[in-house]
Amino acid sequence: MTLNVGVIGVGMIGQDHIRRLTDVLSGARVAAVTDVDLDRARTVADDLPGATLHPSGQDLIAAPGVDAVLVTSWGPTHEEYVLACIAAGKQVFCEKPLATTREACQRIVDAEVAAGRRLVMVGFMRRYDARYRAMKEAVTSGDIGAPLLMHASHRNPSVPSFFTSDMIINDSAVHDIDVARWMFDDEIAAVTVLKPRVSSKAAAGFDDPLVVLLEMTSGVLVDVEASVNAAYGYDIRGEVVCEDGTVELSESAGAIVKRAGHFSGRVPADWRERFARAFDTEFQAWIDAVTAGTTTGPSAWDGYAATVVCDAGLAALSSGQRIPVVLGERPDLYKEI
Ligand code: NAP
């Protein structure tokens, strides 16, 4: 059976996921597209044999030829489309964020709980990265003892001019926030944001880098250095320190060359290069689960928790204070993180 996927939002990542669904993965095809820019959507549809063009996301979701939906539009539009998918009983893969406010995420969680089954997967693709998975395996095996703390770095070489310090938390560190919850099967209890010396490469009025300190409810501390003007490449690093040893995120998937007393390896240019395989694995898992009549992966609760922690991070950034994270009651539908 081929899963007929409708895509809402054909910008950068929407088109990358369409390529993935069309050329890389098996079991699915892009059956329908829409975008707020209909000319852009038409151009994309013209390259997809048999794909229909829809005037709006709501129209696409209602279409009988659409089995499941991919939401890759701008973040503030996600709530409307995810709620419509739940109302239509259709599985939906929503790129992060699930929604941009705590209240909107709560409405999605409530709707899914009322529907009585999981219909939403959120695109936190690091959970599907082989290097992160190996790291989590080492932590959960117990071989190196109980975890005490984690050091993480999230470095972007540069960002567009519209990027702000808030987006370092909402757009970049949100992935580290999800990793921390997933790595330790635990919730985040409080957030503090520290501001080191500002990089001369940062735009005026822009605090970069930031150190985001996450306190897990178990007491594990996670420090995330988030930099968006690192210049030399896209560098994602991590180390978990445990009672009997440590585990480091492997630095390179490629070859390390040693020559003339030096060694060298490649630093990825951007997130697409670093996480290409993770995106493939994530999507194949979604296609397989939806085809089997279930769902998988990061849930609406994970999307809700990430947004609540980001809100605390923004409050910590503007106030300079330690901000406790107050989550609502986790419904039974979401038993595991
Ligand atoms: P983008 O290039 O701006 O694409 C968003 C697309 O959605 C644009 O074509 C936009 O049109 C369209 N759109 C806006 N409002 C819409 C609406 N009401 N209905 C239908 N389409 C609408 O942005 P992007 O970089 O692809 O990001 C899209 C989403 O993916 C964001 O939520 C982002 O956070 C997420 N993302 C996740 C990752 C990851 O690492 N997992 C990486 C990148 C992006 P206009 O351009 O005309 O507004």
From TrEMBL:
Keywords noted in UniProt: NAD, Oxidoreductase
Domain GFO/IDH/MocA-like oxidoreductase, chain residue ranges per copy: 132-248
Record field: catalytic activity: myo-inositol + NAD(+) = scyllo-inosose + NADH + H(+)
HAMAP family the UniProt entry points to: IolG
Role this protein plays: Involved in the oxidation of myo-inositol (MI) to 2-keto-myo-inositol (2KMI or 2-inosose).
SUBUNIT field: Homotetramer.
Protein name, entry field: Inositol 2-dehydrogenase
